[in-house]
Amino acid sequence: MHELSIAVSIVEMVEEELARRGNAQVSAVHLRLGALSGVVGEALLFSYEVACAGTPLQGSKLVILDLPVIVHCAKCDVRRTLDSPHWLVCPVCETPAPQLVQGKELEIAALELIEQEDSELEMHT
Questions:
Q1: pLDDT in tens, 65-107
Q2: pTM of the model
Q3: Which of 40, 89, 84 is nearest to 66 (CA)?
Q4: Cα 36 to chain centroid, rounded
Q5: What does the domain layout of the chain look like in residue ranges?
Q6: The domain 2-114 is classified under which CATH number: 1.10.540.10, 3.40.50.970, 3.40.190.10, 3.30.2320.80?
Q7: Nearest to 68 by CA among 93, 49, 94, 91
Q8: Is 70 within 8 Å of 82 (Cβ atoms)?
Q9: Which of 123, 124, 108, 118 is nearest to 15 (CA)?
């Protein structure tokens, strides 16, 4: 299951960002995941929990934004969202459309952070 190694890499990258930011705690990691990324979202969600155990990210959630495959059709000269990621063919004119615009992404899009001082204030209120 390569999703575990991907989850470990995500955790390591976020930990590096936390080190740069100082006192912050992660409540959520937002990930953009393309349909052609080769990553199974459900397996990544499970692996993320395992990878976070014992780290500053423990208890945070992984929020996945699934991205469809979008190609540029040279014949129609327009971008089209594909019904199936298995056929790189324009769904309107049925011309092969190998120019991918979107669909291979595997990237951290955002972090939801809780400043440590804020969370300490909430606990004492």
A1: 999 999 999 999 999 999 888 889 999 999 999 999 999 999 9
A2: 0.83
A3: 40
A4: 13
A5: 2-114
A6: 3.30.2320.80
A7: 91
A8: yes
A9: 108
